[in-house]
Amino acid sequence: MRSETKNQFVREMETELEELRERSQLRSFVQLDGVNFCSNDYLGLAEDPRLKRAVLESIECAGKIGGTGSRLLSGHDPVWNELEEEFAEFAGTEAALYFANGYAANLGLLSPVLGKDDVVFSDALNHASLIDGIRLSGARKEIYPHLDLNYLERALRLHESETSRKVIVTESVFSMDGDTADLRAMQELAVRFGASLIVDEAHATAVHGPSGMGIVAQAGLTKDVLAVVHTCGKALASVGGLVCGSTVLREFLINHARTLIFSTAMPAYFAGQIRAALRLAKTMKGEREMLLENSRELAASLQGDGWNVSGTASQIIPIVVGSNEDALAAAKYLQERGFAIRAIRPPTVPAGSARLRLSLTARISKGELRRLQDDLNDWQKSRMALSSACIRAESA
């Protein structure tokens, strides 16, 4: 006998999906072909034969290819300690702790470190994993406008006399706008108002800073911030995330981070893949420099053509077109011309700021960038011509 309650749930979900479809916001899985501007494989390591060989060697050497349990039960292997020690050295911190992915790392860090009596100051465009970690902690929230340090200073001053702990949480490179936080200025504010700083380096790991150490290291703040989160699934073409900080922080998280304690460990051979990727990335200075140079040149050229590329300062270039319909149309036009590009729409970005998010990698050539720009300008011209024709038809 079918449950009417279940049927009601299904009908309500169908209604919500139809509303998303009507607003051109319905998501679906699709594999795009062509020059890939959706990838976060920033250094091209996902296709590097050296890393493929390292993965095969790691599997061959592994005693088992399953996690078999959480690290606190049967899932621990000494290779995880070796990875964490090597990664801490890379990050410039005392210690590091591995999580299954960056999302789990942010949740596992923020939800136990912050308490309900603490005040957390969070950038309005922080990643969902940071937002959810803050929510799970129960801490009081102060959301400051994106990169608005004047607002942040005022918010910190309002809580200056309180005895509660204060923590500023930010990304270093923001995933949707491609801009970067002024971490030195933020740390100065943190010191002045008795706060601590936590930084998510997801899109900076292996791309920015000395040897790809990130923007925290570039700013000389590795010994000053409370924690830094690095991810392995982007430029390192692997899987997982590491919380880097003090040895005390590591031990605290081993005992309190629910996303670690209650998760089956990843297969131990993944540690070998990450270590190989990290060692390769350290040597890829030329690829990093070329990637960031290409990004700067493309952003400047697009701006010269009148495109709104927001405040990009990284390998991520958002081209804000406004409406969902225009973003979808532009993406379709470029896909038909051999580019793997998708439209980014609300609620991922604010209403009215739908965009094409160009994620550049070291495998994309200058010639491909020029061809993309030419095709993008062609789409704009055809769109303007169609608009003018419609206006003339309505006036006739």
Q: Can you characterise this structure?
A:
- By secondary structure, the protein is an alpha/beta fold.
- Helices cover 46% and strands 14% of the residues.
- The chain is built from 14 helices and 12 strands.
- It has helices at residues 4-22, 49-61, 78-91, 102-113, 128-137, 149-158, 183-192, 215-218, 247-256, 258-261, 269-282, 285-304, 324-335, 366-395; strands at residues 35-36, 95-99, 119-123, 140-144, 166-171, 195-200, 227-231, 241-245, 316-322, 339-340, 343-344, 354-359.
- It has a 7-stranded mixed sheet, sandwiched between helices. A 3-stranded antiparallel sheet has the order 9-12-11.
- β5 (166-171), α7 (183-192) and β6 form a beta-alpha-beta unit.
Structural class: alpha/beta
Order of helices and strands: HEHHEHEHEHEHEHEEHHHHEHEEEH
Q: Describe the global form.
A: globular
* N→C terminal distance: 62 Å
Strand order of the largest sheet: 2-8-7-6-5-3-4
The rounded Rg comes to 23 Å
Q: Mean pLDDT across all residues, rounded?
A: 93
Poorly predicted sequence stretches spanning 5 or more consecutive residues:
388-393
- Proportion of residues in β-strands: 5-15%
What's the helical proportion of residues?
Answer: 40-55%
Work out the helix count. 14
Largest sheet: 7 strands, mixed
Number of strands: 12
